Structures are given as structure tokens and as C-alpha cells.
Amino acid sequence: LFGQHVSPQVVERLMAEGAATNSDIRRVAVMFVDFRSFTAGARSRSPQDVVDRLDGAFAVLVEILDRHGGIVNKFLGDGFMAVFGAPLVMGNHCQNAINAARELVAEIKRATDAGEIPPTRIGIGLHSGEALVGNIGSAERREYTVIGDVVNVAISPRSNDNCANNNSKAATSKPMPMMSPNPWCDSADPFRDTPG
């Protein structure tokens, strides 16, 4: 049961280091995924239908993250926060996050086009940098998480009205020449070749 609520990587770390796992500073990539316009559509569905739809989509998306070395840190209603580079240190966490994001977008498009899922769009925010990673909480209940500006920057596109209105697929914080007046909506790189 514990393994269904915490990623296998976090369980392994907790088992190896015990409950006193210290927090430390790591270079990580943080990804936020959000189902676009999901809340409005959920209003006309039963709660069970909403949960079934989310569970079906999450099953596919989490499998993609696993293949690219990412872990889901938190499910956030109609989205989630994922981390690359913690608890397992990887020198290629940024590229893994980009590859996962591309595959997430392509898989949602493929499943939608094939009629396997209702028409679905996702938005993705990515950022890489230093963060505090480790157990945070009270003496009674702690949670393995990531804290820092890297998280705040990655989540910004999730709540950015301009991106939602522009039907964007992904936003990165990587410095690049901006082709859009809103840098969060410029998905020209590295998602230029992503279908959908």
C-alpha cells in the first residue's frame, strides 16, 4: 500500500537512509502537467467519471515519466508535479525531462486521435535549477518533496492565462530568443518538432 502512495524511488531512499533522511540541495528539473479546461468539463460529469478519466490518463503519463527517470511528487487535482534528478541523482535530468514532456504531448495526441480517451489537451511547465529536496513536514507526518524557486518558475505556466488562451503545449524557462511577447508561451524550443 505504501508503494502506491510514494514512488518506488522514494521508498528505496527511505528504506536505505531511514526516517531521518536529511534535506539537501540538488540540481533538478521540475515539471508541472495540467489538463487544459478540465475543471469546466468536470462540472458536467459525475465524480466517479472524473476520477476514472484522470486515473486512465495518469496511468499512461506516469509510465512515460518512469521511463525517463522522473517521479510524480504530487498529484494536484487535474495535474501533477514531477521531479527529475531526485531522489536519484542523474547527470541528464534536464534532457530526460524534455524527452518525457515531448512523449507526454505525443501520447495524449495519439490516444485522443485513436479515440482511446476523450479529446484532451495538456499544458506542461518545465524549469531546472537548484532546490531543497528531502522530507518536510511535522514530527507526525512528513513528505518527500522539492522546494525552491525552480518549483515556483515551473508552475507559473500552469496558471498563466495567456498560455491557456494560446493553446500552448509546453513552456520552458530555458533562455532562448523569444518569438512570442509572452516568454511562457514560447514553445518553439525544445518542442518545435512535437506533434499536436
Largest sheet: 6 strands, mixed
Derived from helix and strand composition plus strand pairing, the structural class reads alpha+beta
Q: What average pLDDT do the residues reach? A: 74
Order of helices and strands: HHEHHEEHEEHHE
Which runs of at least 5 residues are low in confidence (pLDDT < 50)?
Answer: 1-5, 160-168, 172-196
Helix content: 25-40%
Strand content: 25-35%
Protein described:
37% of the residues lie in helices and 25% in strands. The protein has helices at residues 2-5, 8-17, 38-42, 47-67, 93-113, 149-155, 161-165, and strands spanning 24-35, 70-75, 79-84, 122-137, 142-147, 170-172. Strands 1, 2, 3, 4, 5 and 6 form a six-stranded mixed beta sheet that branches. Strand 2 and strand 3 (79-84) form a beta hairpin. Helix 4 crosses helix 5. The longest helix has 21 residues, at 47-67. The protein is globular and about 45 Å long.
Topology, element by element:
Elements: H1 2-5, H2 8-17, E1 24-35, H3 38-42, H4 47-67, E2 70-75, E3 79-84, H5 93-113, E4 122-137, E5 142-147, H6 149-155, H7 161-165, E6 170-172
Parallel strand pairs: 4-6
Antiparallel strand pairs: 1-3, 1-4, 2-3, 4-5
Keywords:
single chain, disordered C terminus, 25% strand, six-stranded mixed sheet, alpha+beta, 196 residues
Give a brief outline of the structure.
The chain is 37% helix and 25% strand. The protein has 196 residues and is of the alpha+beta class.
